[in-house]
Specification:
The protein is mainly beta. The strands form three sheets. Strands 4-2-6-7 form a four-stranded antiparallel sheet, with no helix packed on it.
Length: 122
């Protein structure tokens, strides 16, 4: 799963930035392997914007937290708390069979079938 955010440089000078993760801020500690940020570093020209992709690579039924850090050379360090959860796919159908009865070969018949997402995955 990924989430895209937009970074903007409102200043009059180029901003050199790099992303990392706060050490000791992973819950559970193995979550360090589940998060990523792309691009990991770059330069934003004055008044420019750039799309940043936050990635979560969790396995089934996993919850994880982390803190992403964006360091701007000569400027502040920004903290971005991350929280993610993954789950197995779960669904239900409102019918188990669709009965069309006897039909002529040149007729079109329709029946409704409802598929409901009962899991956490959207």
């Amino acid at each position: 799963k990924s989430l895209t955010i937009t970074m903007k440089n409102p200043s009059l000078v180029a901003a050199h930035f790099s992303w990392s993760f706060a050490q000791g801020a992973f819950e559970p500690p193995a979550a360090a392997a589940l998060f990523d940020v792309l691009p990991i570093k770059g330069v934003l020209q004055p008044e420019a914007t750039e799309a940043i992709e936050l990635l979560y690579k969790g396995s089934i039924n996993t919850k994880a937290k982390a803190v992403a850090l964006c360091e701007v050379v000569g400027g502040p360090e920004y903290e971005l708390p991350l929280s993610a959860e993954s789950s197995s796919v779960s669904y239900k159908l409102d019918k188990t069979t669709l009965d069309f009865g006897l039909q002529l070969y040149d007729r079109v018949e329709e029946r409704d079938l409802t598929l409901t997402n009962t899991g956490k995955v959207q």
